[in-house]
Every structure is written in structure tokens, then in C-alpha cells.
Amino acid sequence: MHTILITGFEPFGGESDNPSWQVAKALEGWQPNEECIVKAVRLPCTFADSLPTLYSALESLSPVMVIALGQAGGRAEISLEKVAINYQDAPIPDNAGKQPHDTPVVPSGPTAYFSTLPLNRLVNALNEAHHPASVSYTAGTFVCNHVFYGLMHALAHHTEVRAGFIHIPYSPAQACKHRAPSMPVGDVVAAMKIAIELSLLDDDVTAVCEGMLH
């Protein structure tokens, strides 16, 4: 059985919950096919500990696909992030009180990495299923981008593992407090199932999975 790793974050910024983790947790144990199963891991919303937690999961699970989820308050649709940049400039302190400015994620690392998820096909499929989605070209400069860049850097020489980052809107409970756009967690879960299934059907990923089965 091959693993699809889905990560979400703990609450941050004074929130009592984080929809990214709610979605990831809801997907735990789901099987998109007979060969794969989803495992969910919650990441701390800190610059110091988020990547060690992620790297530990990568090492122990050896996933065939990784989708990292994050909360993007104020966005009205699912944002499939295209590019992770080697730059961090925290607008607020993380959960450990750290607020790095104008520093790289990985010293001497490449300027950027691109998602290896089939973004355009995912956007088309999600919109056809009435889940508002688009490709985004900014994952920010907070812990989400930090994790996105660190993930792609870790997998730079593992091209058989498809990976990327997806931002999701506030949950309705959060939106009532912030008077901002929202999306029900159940709808996001359904959208992520579509995204996972479609990514696994991609020719390159299918070939990898079939090769690993023999």
C-alpha cells in the first residue's frame, strides 16, 4: 500500500482551529484506489519546527504524493500554488513568537521551485465540479511558503514524487468572525478527493505507481 501524505497546520494568529488541518484529518485513511491510502500529519505553525516535522513524515512514510494545505484567510476560492520562493518575511509572529524578515528558507538554495501537481487540470476539474479554484502565483512569505519551499527542496531529486501546496479559505465559523469569504470544510474535502484522484491518474504518476507495484 502506497502513501499519499496530506499535511495541515495547527491554528495560528489567534484562531481556535485551522481548516487546513480539519480537511487533512478528514482525509486520513481514505483510499482513492486499491494501491494508495491517505495519511494526515499536522504541522506546527512555526518556522523552526514545521520542516523537521514534515521531513520526519517524508522519511517514515515514503509517500508517492504530498499535498500540503494551508489557510488563506480572505481568499474566496481554493488556491493551487504554482511557485515556492526561497524567501521569508513574516507579517506576524509564528506560534513560537518568531518573526523572521528578509531571510532565505534554505541558504544558497535555488530562488524558487514549481509545484509538480497538474495544476491546470486540477483547476478545470474542480471548477467543473462547482468547487471554485484557480492557480495562484503567491504562497506568501509566512510559514506556508516556508513549508512549500522546504517540501519541494527535499523532493528536488525525487522527481517520481508529485508534490505541491494548496491554500484554502476560512471555514464558515471563522468567516463569521472576520466577515470574510469562506468555504465549508466538507466541500474542501470533496475537492481534495478530486484533486488526489486526478493527480494519480496523471500518466507520469500512474507509471511510477505501477512500477513500484512490480
UniProtKB/TrEMBL annotation:
Predominant location category: cytoplasm
SUPFAM superfamilies assigned: Pyrrolidone carboxyl peptidase (pyroglutamate aminopeptidase)
Protein name: Pyrrolidone-carboxylate peptidase
Assembly description: Homotetramer.
Transmembrane region(s): none
Molecular function per GO: pyroglutamyl-peptidase activity
EC number(s) stated in the UniProt entry for this protein: 3.4.19.3
